[in-house]
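Task: complex structure prediction.
Instruction: return structure tokens for all chains below.
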Amino acid sequence: MTLTEDPSTATPDAPAKEVGSARLRKEDARLITGKTTWTDNMVLPGMLYMSVLRSPIAHATISNLDVSAAKDRPNVVAVYTGQDFKDEQGSIPCAWPVTPDMVNPGHPSIAVDSVNHVGEAVAIVVARSRTAAVDAVEAIDVDYEPLPVVLDMEEAVKEGSALVHDHTESNTSYHFVFDAGEAGTGTDTDAAFDAAEVVVSRRFVQQRLIPAFMEPRSVVVGVTGDNYTLWSATQIPHILRVMAALTTGIPEHKLRVIAPDVGGGFGGKLQVNPEEILALLIARRLGKPIKWTETRSESLMTAHHGRDQVQFIDVAADREGNVKGLRVRLLADMGAYLRLITPGVPALGAFMFPGIYKFPAYRFECDGVFTNKVPTDAYRGAGRPEATFAIERIMDELAVELSMDPMELRRKNWINAEEFPFTTVAGLSYDSGDYEQATQAALELLGYDELRAEQARRRESGDPVQLGIGISTFTEMCGLAPSRVLGSLSFGAGGWEQASIRMLPTGKVEVVTGSTPHGQGHETAWSQIVADELGVPFDDVEVLHGDTAVSARGLDTYGSRSLVVGGTAVVKAAEKVVAKARKVAAHLLEASEDDLEFSGGRFSVKGTPGAGLAIQEIALAIFASHDYPEGIEPSIDAEAAFDPTNFSFPHGTHLCAMEVDTDTGFVKIRKYACVDDIGNIVNPIIVEGQMHGGLAQGISQALYEEAIYDADGNLTTGTFVDYLVPSAMDLPHFDTGNTTHAAPDNPLGAKGVGEAGCIASTPAVVNAALDAVRHLGVKDILMPMTPERVWRAIHQGGDGGARAAEGSNAYGGARTTESGIEEAAK
Amino acid sequence: MIPASFAYARPTTVDEALQAIAAGGEDVKILAGGQSLIPVMRLRLAAPETVVDITRVTELRGVREDGDSLVIGAMTTHHDVITDPLIAQYGKLIAEATETVADPAVRHRGTFGGALVHADPAGDLPAVALALDAEFVIAGLGGARRTVPATEFFVDYLTTALADGELLVEVRVPKLGSDWGVRYEKFNRVAQAWSIVAVAAAVRREGSRITEARIGLTNMGSTPIRARAVEAALVGADVSLETVTAAAAQAAEGTEPSSDLNAQADYRQHLARVLTRRAVTAAAGL
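Output:
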């Protein structure tokens, strides 16, 4: 797809219908050219800067902490330690107690007596410049008494393991179970396995990932009397306002949170960060504005990570390939503390492990495990990529076991188009779709048959470069979420969304949304929706967001929810505007409301050509309010909240053709084709962008990214030298397509696209590599599939094994050691 | 991250630069393109007392001929090296390796001399310079100049023969004519990353025989390394896949590569053999 306006529309300025047209994103010019105010650009009079001293030790008691030298450094205003805030800092909130007996050890924003992961805040310097603050941090003297370090989940859950938190009984935070038999959505799982002809069991590892958003986290707090304004590069200004008020004791109505333009998040900014709380506490104490912006090293080390699960999965089937049961046991690494939805991420996955298949029996268990690492939390897909990986990987393993074609096995077990809506063994009601149709389209896009023939030729000739094809037929749950369902899962909030529309006297329109974008293009998509609903020009719509004083109610952006839930709220608000305008129009046109037609932004009287009023004229008339119907308010503005009745379920078929150089282990994606059903599409360019970005991230989990800690709990991958993120150079052309089955549960018919590529692609890539070298005896390769791992798996057997924990020696091997970041001894 | 404070000098001539270095105190760092120094300072791995910025010393930029040699100014940027017509004609190995350095932004700022003086064994240019038997022309205070051969220039990890107070001014490499074939075979995981292993190969053929071979290895030890055993095995050999493969099998002899998260030592040695075979095969026109 090229970045041009859709030629099928009437004119570039005014397509016949905005929804569905390939509008260029109206926010991009300012974002790309920097003509906006990012949080770190904010400067307030008298502003102070904070810099954080972070623990270089993964687990220790703080035996001595001397900040006196730092206090004497030039331009230093104050130096604080955990002792200064221990009575007022409370705990970073965890909004998702997934079980009634979940152990939450509490999460101080700044360490008081002990540290539990490398990077934990130990002291804070507040100074008149950022430089002065950073310099003074180096003058702080800390003595640590090291404690045993807990890093490996499988060891951590054993009897007698050292503890991350000495006031807990074990390193297990919770044991979450979903049993379809007990829930009444399936049959008895043990019985299914006892009776099965074939059982395939695997252990998969979801490595730890770092969200690695482009804009580092940044916080500014302004103080006006006893009112506080918190600017933050956050995904969730609304949630942050509530949580920060509860945590700090600043009354909610005295706290305004603003997320200005935000440069990416991927779930990594779906958080209440310790630094946000600390900035508020310090601003309150000093009565001065304060700023904190993290460095990239701080970001990689201390912003929450994602994934990190060990998955034990068993599938039961008969010899003909009919699946009979599914059993999943997870160890999910919480890290040292529970942050906002840390425990909920793996639990959310519970509902997605059955994928698109008709399992009669299903049981899921998950242990949340504490380790001395930075906490995990939401990362693009959050629970669903992990589940999709496991089910799509083991379907291939089952196919191998049964000597069946992997697509044939899937076809035999997936939900057929005529079976929608379909209630799954996990209790979800899948809304719409056609897996066969998407699969056929994807096979054609890939050129499946030709590539299979080439694969056979290469195998036969013993070519050093082998070819494999990987399949991922996935679905996901999006549009988070029906509030009642969230309540049943003990989540601490609802899943509705809010929108309001303000009709300005000049006919321009302001749309206020509670869905706070951080790069997705809400301003463009919402403008398209409102342009169609109200019949106003696309360019006459301004979308306001991210400021709790402007957008008072909202639940922000995550879980592919914005369009599905927030976009629907916009539609509902627009319908109210039209309804209110209709009364005014009827009055002014001296016609009955029932005789009015609304089309193209104009109310006209049936059977009376020429008699009509544009909605802009009504906006002006109601602004003047000289003449409007009695008994109504002088406004056609409207507000709406929407609470979805169901999730939405995008699905798709992703196919990856992979070349594996057996001499070096280097893998190269030869072709990637995917056909996704995301319901109705508001803007194809935005969809394409989301798909490309998601694919890049999902492929990157398979091939490149991994947060590695050494045996002492230092983050080896502490810079982008060692935490590999691919660029366009490293990724193939993507052949993307869509089938369309409108979501039945929202008026837009949209299902959500923010996470699809990321969820679907990872197993397709791994399956492809294994398909290329399985005949050489390779059964599994750990992610990321580094060339070394692939080479070892081919030539030495096994899954490629653990990587060396030493960072590379570029830049002198920058990594965390005893004094923060220091040269590695080489 | 913010660097620690430092004094800053920005000379415009080599003489001024040498004086600024001499006056800079105990710990002076020379800023060429800054593509390694600035990150290291921002991470506070380096906190020099003085930074001498030589980006305005224009006499250090450019490529010229001098008899059988190419002379490359230390401050010639990677981008200028890649686009230089003399390099295109006589220095294809340098061009090929330089094209693999990082990304366009880095190549527009980073310099040929800076990359060599940084002496990162994972950097691409040291092995090329070593393979070509480059000569390093070094200026000292008072205008003294000395020339150091590549075999003596790379002393250890991030360490060269440059003494305190000295400045690399230019690098001389032999012109390779049309009877030479070259290849820089780089192996990394993503395009902008450092080499896990790379092989610089230059091979001169007369008919079916190899008459000269120069093989440099990137990131196979604390300095760039010549694969002397491979070179010896190639010279005089008839060009064939078998002879090249047999010679390349000796590529890892005497190497002591590091182990890190990208590759453990035995895998690096394996890669050295495979990549040497590929580099020589391509350079020899097979």
